[in-house]
From TrEMBL:
This is Molybdopterin-binding protein. Residues 35-179 form the Oxidoreductase molybdopterin-binding domain. Gene3D superfamilies: Oxidoreductase, molybdopterin-binding domain. InterPro entries: OxRdtase_Mopterin-bd_dom (IPR000572), OxRdtase_Mopterin-bd_sf (IPR036374). It comes from the Bacteria. It comes from Marisediminicola antarctica. Pfam families: Oxidored_molyb.
Length: 197
């Protein structure tokens, strides 16, 4: 059963530039999770990318912070209909992490501490579109929002920005993750209202 926080209130407005159809603006940062919040110590945290041929690339927390860090200001959109404009994040671009990864895969499955999964086309993770984010609004990312680190793919609905991210498996064929198996769209573009199958 999902866990909801206060903040799922707002007014839908179709005249707001940049607001996808069916969304409303919020100033809060609502929390929605499919289960309990995992607590991962920074000493034990690891992110990995496994290729379709089985090669695994790994980064510890210290390895991640040693990479080029980017400041990202972006809008985010949840499938539950809220949007938040101008959110501020810090993290490492997936372009940086994928730079030395040899692959012909076109798809990926993100997986998280706690067992959550979501599929994301590799094209949606490249070209300055996605990050491993560890700060929000100038402070370390809180566990309820996916800390210590989450995937940030802001041009897709926010369920694709996997909280508590642990790694990516690169795949030659697409397949559904947790919410996709439960009826959510395989891609999730908010401007096309790709909410459900």
């Amino acid at each position: 059963m999902g866990i909801f926080s206060p903040g799922f209130g707002g007014k839908r407005r179709s005249d707001v530039p940049g607001l996808p159809p069916g969304q409303y603006l919020t100033e809060s940062f609502p929390v929605l999770s499919a289960g309990a919040t995992p607590r991962v110590s920074l000493d034990e945290w690891e992110f990995s990318i496994s290729t379709e041929s089985g090669v695994r690339h790994r980064w510890s927390w210290q390895d991640l912070l040693a990479l080029p860090i980017e400041d990202v200001t972006t809008d985010i959109h949840c499938v539950t209909s809220w949007s938040k404009f101008g959110t501020a994040w810090r993290g490492v671009s997936l372009d940086t992490l994928l730079a030395d990864v040899e692959t012909t895969a076109e798809f990926s499955m993100a997986y998280s501490y706690g067992g959550y999964t979501t599929n994301v086309p590799l094209a949606d993770l490249r070209g300055g579109k996605a990050w491993i984010a560890f700060e929000f609004d100038g402070v370390p990312l809180e566990p309820q929002h996916g800390g210590p680190a989450r995937l940030l793919v802001p041009h897709l609905y926010f369920w694709k920005s996997a909280k508590w991210v642990h790694g990516l498996n690169l795949l030659t064929e697409d397949g559904p993750g947790f919410w996709e198996q439960n009826g959510y769209h395989m891609r999730g573009d908010p401007f096309l209202e790709q909410r459900y199958w």
